[in-house]
Amino acid sequence: MKLIIFDFDGTLVDSRSLILESHRIVFSEFRLPLPMPADCLSLVGKTLDLILTQLAGPAAPIRDMVRAYDLLLPQLRADPSFAEKPFDGIADLLRDLSSTPDIVLGMATGHTSLTVAPALAALRWRDFFRTIQAADMAPSKPHPAMLLQALEATGVKAENAIFIGDTTYDMEMAQAASLRSIGVSWGYHTSDQLAAAGAAHLASTVDELRHHVRALCSQ
After folding, report:
1. Rounded Cα–Cα distance for residues 159 and 193 (Å)
2. What values do phi and psi take at 20, rounded to 5?
3. What Cα–Cα distance (Å) separates residue 175 from each residue in 54, 147, 198?
4. Contacts for 117-123 with beta carbons within 8 Å, 24 or more apart?
5. Are 135 and 119 in contact (CB under 8 A)?
6. What is the distance, to the nearest Å, from the Cα of residue 100 to the centroid of all Cα atoms in its chain?
7. pLDDT tens for each residue of 98-154
8. Which terminus of the chain, N or C, has fewer Cβ atoms within 10 Å?
9. CA distances to 78, 99, 121, 159, 165 from 203, in Å
10. What CA–CA distance (Å, rounded) separates 217 from 81?
11. Residue 83, class by beta-carbon neighbours within 10 Å (0-12 exposed, 13-18 middle, 19+ buried)?
C-alpha cells in the first residue's frame, strides 16, 4: 500500500485572500503594525503561534491573537471572497487517487484540527483522507512528527510514502521523516527554494504532479 500525504494551504487550495484578510483584521484589532503580505505568505505552513511571534514579535499577546483567529476564520470562510479555493484540477486528482486500489491519502497541515475540519467539510473532501495530522497534534513543521504519525496511523512504511507540499518547511519535514517528496510551485515558495530544501521532484502543474505521483507509486 502507498500513502500519499498532502499539505493543505498552497498545495491543495489557494488561501491567500483568507490569510491576508485575517492578518489585516487581527493585527488591526490588537493595534499592531500590519506586516507586509510577502512576509505573511512566506511563513505559511508553520503553526500560527510561531507565525505570529515572527510577524508581531514575542512581546505581542500571541495566545489572545490565536484565539481571535480561531473566531474569525469561520466568518471569513462564509464569504466566497475569502474562502479557500481548490487549485484547478486538484479535486479531480484527489478523487482519482482516493479511489485507486492500494493508495491511501493523508494530510499534514499547519492548521489545527478545529480550523481545518470546517474547510474540508465545505470542500466535501473529508472522506478522501485516511489520516489528517494537524498543528495541535505535533510540533510545527519542519519537525517530522506529523509525517511519522501519519505512517503509524496507516501502517505504511516510510519508503512507501510520498509527501507533497509547497514550502521549504514541507520539504525539510519530508527529509527529516525519510519520505520522498514532491514540491509544487504554485504555492508560497519558489521552485528554486523547494529544490534547495530537498524536493526530490518538482511540479509546476497538476498534470505534472499526477505524473510524478503515478511514477513514484509504480516503483
Report:
1. 24
2. -70, -40
3. 24, 10, 7
4. 118/73, 118/74, 118/77, 119/8, 119/13, 119/77, 119/84, 122/77, 122/83, 123/13, 123/84, 123/86, 123/91
5. no
6. 23
7. 999 999 999 999 999 999 999 999 999 999 999 999 999 999 999 999 999 999 999
8. C
9. 31, 22, 27, 21, 10
10. 37
11. middle
Residues 6+ apart with CB under 8 A from 37: 20
Sort 20 into a burial class: Cβ within 10 Å, 0-12 / 13-18 / 19+: middle
Q: Kindly state the cell numbers that stand for 157.
A: 512504511
Grid coordinates in use for 186? Answer: 504554485
Q: Which three cell numbers stand for residue 196?
A: 534547495
Q: How far apart are CA 173 and CA 52, in angstroms?
A: 21
**Residue 192 grid cell:** 528554486
Q: Helix and strand tally (H, E) in the chain?
A: 10, 8
